[in-house]
Design goal:
92 residues; alpha+beta; five-stranded antiparallel sheet; 5 strands
């Protein structure tokens, strides 16, 4: 029996209103918050994304009753999350 798994894809809208698709690599929930590791979906051509950047880490926050993904601004937290994601995902 063959099983086909499809990637979880999310679409984010940047500050200029441009939609970009990302594949969800992993999710961490801890005492600091809830975080996603997302990789750009390169199946769609987009010259504005740098393919050398492996993945992005976003925090889930609630704003006006809706969940939003925002950049992690705390450098120490970002380093710790990167280390944890890379352990969980293996060497990317």
């Amino acid at each position: 029996m063959e099983e086909n798994f499809s990637a979880d894809i999310v679409t984010l809208v940047d500050d200029e209103g441009i939609e970009r698709e990302f594949e969800v690599l992993d999710f961490i929930e801890n005492s600091k918050g809830r975080f996603y590791a997302l990789m750009p979906n390169f199946e769609l051509p987009d010259e504005n994304l740098d393919k050398d950047e492996t993945y992005f880490i976003f925090e889930i926050v609630e704003e006006n009753g809706e969940e939003q993904l925002v950049e992690v601004e705390d450098d120490e937290l970002l380093d710790n999350l990167s280390e944890e994601f890379e352990k969980r995902l293996g060497s990317m």
